[in-house]
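Job type: complex structure
Entries:
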Amino acid sequence: MATTPRIPTELLEGYFIQMERDETNDNPVAAISIPIELSRLAAIPVRTKKSFQLDPVLHELIRLYNAKVQDCQYCQNARQAVAVQAGLDEDMVSALSRFETSSLPEPVKAALRLTAAISTNPGLISDEMWEQAGQHFTEDELVDIVLLSMHTTASKVTITLGLDPGKEASSRLFFPTEDVYGESPELAEAIQELRSRGVVVDGPADAALPVGSTVVAAEVGA
Amino acid sequence: MTRVTSLAEGPTELDRVWGKRPEYYAVFMSDYADSIERVDPVLLELCRIRVAQLVESTFDLSLRYAPAREAGLGEDKLGAVADYPDSPQFTDRERAVLEFTEQFVIQSSSISDDDVTRVQAHLTPEEFIYLTKALGVLDQFSRANSAFRLAPAESVPPTMPAFLVRT
């Protein structure tokens, strides 16, 4: 545990930041975690037919922006393997905290303006800001940007309770085939489609990936 | 009216906007309902209104949580929520919880151990856990509704059966 729990340890047994909600799980702490099905539907770590439908690099930049703003160590360490192969690099990740003056592409900036307003005060989203983003994204994508920006603030509960699992607990690279992401037909179909395009969808959490893979190794314990 | 123009089918604006992602909407609302139900209804409603004020969600401000009304929470007190530090209508427990709520909404990573100790003096460990989880879903829901600029509710969305439209 990276931080000090603010609730009695006997109430914590079996807790993790995301947990399955189904009849096979009678663990009471599941009630305060993020339902993992919700993350799957938010296209973490890969989009499926029923999930949000954003470009993987943009998706990961939104997720990592909130990981930084909310100060979730567990979330900040991880990189969606699909996004890395689609061109996400560490310079882009470093640019997030000052994205407005960075060299990130204009569409990414337009999306991050929405994400930033949602995490501070969404009342600040002006019609101009919405329309500007609409020059780069369809309205369906704008809805997904809002919902993903909101979804990735869910770590606030974990952090407030003093339960951030810490960066040691997350895989530097995470793949859709990990056990926790389930076995739905939609996921199987999405994975098959990615494989057919040559995307690596399973592998070691810290090994190099082909094409466009510039991810750096995790600094465990640093 | 919402700024989203291409809408899904549904009885209310909430359903027509969130219904563009129907599976996500269903799971989120189920977690929302389960999470708020675990908190004292009057405390929950005071927090819900304060969250909606801070993130400027007119939709959330237009609803009322029925169990809180049944427990005697009226419009006089709800109208004083923004003035909770000074208003005589609030108990010490309510003030501590509302202060914690504001910290959670504005920057949860800045909540100190002392801040937690102060609110925990008024809550059992279980109450503290369930309050924090409820604040999580209230905060998320209001933020999205504010970003979509949902209009005040004219009728109760079927996904929010515990609520009434403010009259």
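Summary: Residues 27 and 187 of chain A are 26 Å apart (CA to CA). Strands of chain A lie at 18-19, 34-35, 79-80, 173-174.
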